[in-house]
Amino acid sequence: MKKIIFVCTGNTCRSPMAEALAKKIIQESPLNIEVISRGISVYFPSSASNYAHVAMKEYDIDLKDHKSKGLESKDMENADLILTMTQGHKHYLLLNFPEYGKKIYTIKEFTNENGDIEDPFGGNLDSYKNCAANLNRVIKKAIKTISRTM
Questions:
Q1: SS (H, E, C) 40-82
Q2: Lower CB count within 10 Å: N or C terminus of the chain?
Q3: Average pLDDT over residues 12-40
Q4: Does the predicted model carry a pTM greater than 0.70?
């Protein structure tokens, strides 16, 4: 089984939404891929943000069981693909885990797009819904690429 990790800052907004969306898309496909999410700055387990919960309901996804987790070296070692939300996250991982550089991409880079998945943290519900829609779109593209290459 292949394994993908989505990485953001606190693992309470973008990466848990990405994980949940990817799991739903993969579940509806013949692919056998494990998906997890992690954060690079997680100091204690937290639930997904309230607006992330609400935004995911539009996709019939419930984040009630999510607890944030920090990224560890063993996660990266066991992953086949590591998709970050921003260039900053990618840069951090390349500096701290250079041995895994060949499997680290921003999600937009992996889907041949430019830019980052902007952090909705601190924003209103619309910013979370926009983030979720953007994630859903790029994850669908990423899954198509993965199905051809993994």
A1: CCCCCCCCCCHHHHHHHHCCCCCCCCCCCCECCHHHHHHCCEE
A2: N
A3: 97
A4: yes
The Cα–Cα gap between 67 and 45 comes to 5
From the centroid of its chain, how far is CA 131? Answer: 12
Which residues on neighbouring strands pair with residue 81, listed in sequence order?
A: 4
Phi, psi (deg, nearest 5) at residue 7: -125, 130
Distance in angstroms (rounded) separating the CA atoms of residues 64 and 108:
27
Q: How far apart are CA 123 and CA 57, in angstroms?
A: 18
Q: Say what the pLDDT of residue 1 is.
A: 84
Q: Which two tokens stand for residue 98?
A: 């250079």
Task: Write out the two tokens for 61.
Answer: 């996804």
User: What is the third-level CATH fold of 2-149?
Assistant: Rossmann fold (3.40.50)
Catalytic residue positions, numbered: 8, 14, 119
Question: Once rounded to an integer, what is the mean pLDDT over residues 49-69?
Answer: 98
Other CB atoms closer than 10 Å to residue 16's CB: what's the count? 29
- In the chain the first and final C-alpha atoms are separated, in Å, by 10
